[in-house]
# Entry
Amino acid sequence: MSLAPYVQIVARGKGRGRALTMAEAQDAMGLILAGHAAPEAVGALLMVLRLRGEEPQEIAGFTAALRAHVQGKLPPTDLDWPCYAAGRSRGAPLFLLAARLISTAGYRVSMHGWNSHQSGAASLRAALDLAGPGVTYTPLETLSPEAFDLLNLRDTFGLRSCFNTVLRMWNPSQAPATVQGVFHPSYRSLQAQAASMLGQRDLSIIKGGGGEFERHPAKEITVFGLRDGKHIQETATPLVNETRRLHDVSDAIDIRGLWHGSTRDSFAKATVTGTAAIGLWTLKAAPSLYAAQDMAEALWDTRHTQKGLTA
# Structure
């Protein structure tokens, strides 16, 4: 089957085009991932959706197709953590230390992603020796070469497409809980709606540093998502009273020194524990964000005495 009918649905003239249904979107993405769609049609579909704006049922349908395409490639885990930021302003991947803290509480964390247009100091892959045994990272190009090719159409278009959102929604390990970071705040509600359509029950979405799931500790943030399948909006209060950018590429944080204790930085530490706290709350390891923050700080203080960890 050709992708043309789906392009026609969304690209008809003003007042005639409409959004794809979830089933139509799933069929369309299935054709694309199977290699049955002409590249011109793929570009037309993705760019029309970008111009018009993304709809929750379209994102849900695309995500369902991607999930089916790679089903069973990753072992079961507790927390899904997508990593797809491409901002040039990113600094050290402090969120990796947050994931490690969560794993020291006994949870399995599955990270997956691709990060382009970043400095060496921002490289998540270069810091994976800090992940610890409870955190895994799977590169997108290994997990799904087809999805990798779709993401890299950004270099062809010069623009992101809705596939960036789909990758954050993906959850290839079928984890019962997931966390997501976005760059544009409007996507928090969109992704929560799409996740609900997919049957996701526990999810936290924040406007994170450069689009990663990494909170700014000096700002009040709103956590969107789902708890037991119900939509939530929860306010996380500032953790530190300090005016500072989350990342400064000209003054990168020594992430290894921070973890091992040779570097002292209260702002960076609060970034780590604040991010971990939202993840722990998503996993229902604590009943509230406040309790989760206390738990994250205790895990940080005892990070070198936890079983299986080294200083």
